[in-house]
C-alpha cells in the first residue's frame, strides 16, 4: 500500500479508497486516440477522445485481461505499462513514467493481486456465490 500511495506511482490519485476507484475519465495511452475514441465516441466532444472511466481495483486480481481492450494479460504487464507512462505517448496522456525497483514492483503487484481481493469472492462463497438456476432448461434436475 505504501508503494500504491507513494511518491512514484501515486495510484491513489485516480484509484481512491474505499473502492479504489475514482470519478472521471482519463487517457492513458493504451491505444492511439484516433484508433480508440472511448468516451469521445459517446459524447462527440473532441476533449473526450481517448478517455476511459477509472475502474475499481477491488478484486482486480480475478479479472484478467486488463484495460478496456484486454490489451494486458497480467498485473505485472499493467504495472510495467504504468511505470513506462503508457504505450502511446501524447500530450493528452494523463500518466507520467515513474521508476520502480523490482521489490516495489512485486509489492505493488502483490497488493493488486492479493490485498485487494476479497477471499469470499475468490472462493465463490456467500454472499458472492452464483447459484446455478435450471428453470426452463432441459438441464433441470430430475427427482427419482
> Uncertain segments of ≥5 residues (pLDDT<50)?
none
Q: Let me know the average pLDDT.
A: 90
Number of strands: 2
Please describe the biggest sheet, giving its number of strands, its sense, and whether it closes into a barrel. 2 strands, antiparallel
- Strands in their spatial order, largest beta sheet: 1-2
CA radius of gyration: 19 Å
What is the string of SSEs from the N terminus onward?
HEHEHHH
State the separation between the terminal residues, measured CA to CA.
55 Å
Q: Give the fraction of residues assigned to helices.
A: 10-25%
Overall SS class: mainly alpha
In percent terms, what proportion of residues is strand?
under 5%
Number of helix segments? 5
Indicate the overall shape: globular
How would you sum up this structure, described in words?
The protein has 144 residues and is an all-alpha fold. 24% of the residues lie in helices and 3% in strands. Strands 1-2 form a two-stranded antiparallel sheet. α3 (75-83) crosses α4 (102-115). The N and C termini lie far apart (55 Å). The model has no long low-confidence stretch (mean pLDDT 90).
Amino acid at each position: 500500500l505504501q508503494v500504491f500511495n507513494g511518491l512514484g506511482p501515486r495510484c491513489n490519485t485516480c484509484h481512491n479508497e474505499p473502492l479504489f476507484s475514482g470519478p472521471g475519465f482519463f487517457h492513458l495511452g493504451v491505444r492511439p486516440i484516433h484508433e480508440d475514441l472511448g468516451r469521445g465516441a459517446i459524447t462527440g466532444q473532441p476533449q473526450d477522445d481517448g478517455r476511459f472511466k477509472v475502474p475499481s481495483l477491488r478484486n482486480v486480481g480475478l479479472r484478467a485481461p486488463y484495460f478496456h481492450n484486454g490489451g494486458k494479460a497480467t498485473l505485472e504487464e499493467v504495472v510495467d505499462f504504468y511505470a513506462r507512462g503508457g504505450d502511446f505517448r501524447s500530450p493528452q496522456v494523463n500518466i507520467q513514467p515513474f521508476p520502480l525497483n523490482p521489490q516495489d514492483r512485486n509489492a505493488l503487484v502483490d497488493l493488486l493481486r492479493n490485498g485487494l481481493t476479497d477471499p469470499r469472492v475468490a472462493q465463490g462463497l456467500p454472499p458472492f456465490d452464483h447459484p446455478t438456476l435450471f428453470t426452463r432448461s432441459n438441464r433441470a434436475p430430475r427427482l427419482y
